[in-house]
Amino acid sequence: ETPEQLAAFEARIAAGEKIEPGDWMPAAYRKQLIRMISQHAHSEVVGMLPEGAWITRAPNLHRKMILIAKVQDEAGHGQYLYHAAETLGTTREEMLDALLTGKAKYSSIFNYPTLTWADIGMIGWLVDGAAIKNQTMLAGCSYGPYSRAMVRICSEETFHHKQGKEMVVAYAREGTPEQKKMAQDALDRWWWPAVQMLGPSDQDSPNTPQLMKWGIKLKTNDEIRQEFINEHAPELMEAGLTIPDPDMYQDASGNWVHGPIDWDEFFRVIKGHGQMNRARLEARNKAHDEGAWVREALNAYEAKQHGQAAD
Ligand code: BYC
């Protein structure tokens, strides 16, 4: 890497140009993107598990169809993102191996259990709501394939967000006392993990400076967190729900200021010690093992197409 190459690359980013797969890029830019995009892909795939667990228990056909479509969308997002990461020179096998052996990270949020049906609505409202804030920013990122994947993913997540909000508001405002209680209980359990999922606070975010320098991230974790809270806090309160943060208040500039975040819990979860980390990895490994015959069949078909004998 010469200083001239780096200067030309940074000038392209400063001019708002997208970097495309065959273009010259610093090794650290490539490495950061592979890290982020593969973690993002893993999050989409692992994120199917907590919601998928409720497909057979949806309260009616209408909500069941929506949930099936949502979980299927997450699989599609995983596909686009693995493809986007592959454009940087990594392989699907390498990425899956890192996930299945527990080396790769995926979003902390999916290490919490879905205990009631209201959790499905709360995930749509809060988790997709947080994801949209982060991904709308990433849609403007400097790497072309990632930025374009984000545009499509965000439009699908907007639908996920709306259905979650509609469901929780229906239970919280017009529901039976049991439904109201179920909605509040879901908020009590998902609020803080949703606030945490946007990443550690800026002073503990080692990757942010480099990512911002190269236009991969356009805002910091705390900035996105504030946007998420500013949108969701008033809407949750309007639905008659109580945010489990007794210290929260609105400051003179209109920001909803949150109380202390339990970062010890966050770091425990991302190190693999959350409630569901082990179960999530077991479920992904089981699905991978049970899909071995599909991969073998694909290889045999491919060999036949090329006139070779399959073994
Ligand atoms: N969980 O320096 P930092 C979805 C790690 S899924 C686990 O701030 P960065 C959906 C971080 O990786 C949405 N780990 O990192 C799917 C780093 O560790 P390494 C998923 C986390 O990259 C199904 C360390 O902590 N979205 O929408 O500057 C159903 C230090 O952090 C987390 C994405 O993946 C976390 N929450 O910023 C419904 C978006 N946060 O890698 C919905 C793409 C941080 O150095 N990713 N860590 O060992 C990003 O935008 C950024 O990577 C983050 C973190 C904002 C997440």
Give a verbal description of the structure:
This protein is mainly α. It has a single domain (3-275), classed as Ferritin, core subunit, four-helix bundle (Ferritin, Up-down Bundle). It has helices at 3-14, 27-46, 48-52, 61-86, 92-100, 118-138, 144-174, 177-196, 208-213, 221-238, 263-273, 277-290, 292-305, and strands spanning 249-250, 256-257. Strands 1-2 form a two-stranded antiparallel ribbon. α2 packs antiparallel against α4 (61-86), α4 runs antiparallel to α7 and α6 (118-138) runs antiparallel to α7 (144-174). The longest helix has 31 residues, at 144-174. The chain is globular. The mean pLDDT is 97. The chain binds benzoyl coenzyme A. The site of benzoyl coenzyme A has 27 residues, from α2, α6 and α9.
Q: Major β-sheet, in short? A: 2 strands, antiparallel
Note the gap between the termini. Answer: 44 Å
How many structural domains can be distinguished in the coordinates? 1
* Name given to the CATH architecture: Up-down Bundle
Give unreliable regions as ranges: none
Rg calc:
21 Å
Find the count of extended strands (DSSP E, 2+ residues).
2
The string of secondary-structure elements, in order, is HHHHHHHHHHEEHHH
